[in-house]
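As promised in the previous annual report, we have extended the structural survey to additional targets. Below is the entry for Isoprenyl transferase.
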Amino acid sequence: MEEQLVFSKSKHDEINQQLDMDRIPKHIAIIMDGNGRWAQKRHLPRVAGHKQGMQTVKKITIAASELGVKVLSLYAFSTENWKRPSSEVSYLMQLPVRFFSTFVPDLVKHNVKVTVMGDITQLPEATQKAVKDAMADTAHCTGMILNFALNYGSRDEITQAAKKMAEDVQNENLAIADIDESAFGKYLMSAQLGQFADPDLLIRTSGEERISNFMLWQIAYSELEFVPEHWPDFDEDSLRSAIITYQGRHRRFGGLKINK
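The corresponding structure token record, generated without further manual editing, is:
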């Protein structure tokens, strides 16, 4: 056990030495995958994985805030997740209530503001209340934004944005000539994130290499990092390692860097 602790500390120190604090991504988005498989691997019910995953959300939120990340977007519940067994969906709907009831004081302490994108009107009343209360209780915070994608699907987001834009054109509040990428972005749910609406880095845990209908418009030029750890095993060093990988890439945004 002592040797393991020494090895862990050595690895932690090595990661910290490699991390460039001047190049921390402003917006990190995470597809939190693998809760159920984490539980099954340990012969536990799937909900045990979701419960442990909630603790990981707390750890990663604080770690990201301390690193200076401006926005942390977490894919908490997709529009497709309603297809899961009703007992699991019911448990997932209870998680925001449990999460915010214990974690909001820590969020306020770390100056973290909660925002949500997705159609929360379809959620149970208790879940809606927990989410709205968390946003209200942290509205004054000016540090990192913890942005939950809750009952969110990117294709639905884009479809709804197109409808709203079409209505504005029909009502003569928007001219067709004024429609461009910037204008369209203002109709998306991520518009509330302002200049940080587009993630610099997208991480997906559990080894799966899919986007799964998450922020399709916004990740056009994001760096993608697929890591093997299931979400409950993803820790502060896992986050730092993903950032180090990001820092080792050259973001050209479709152009070329010319050395003079």
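The longest strand covers residues 71-78. The first helix runs from residue 2 to 18. These points will be discussed at the next consortium meeting with the crystallography subgroup.
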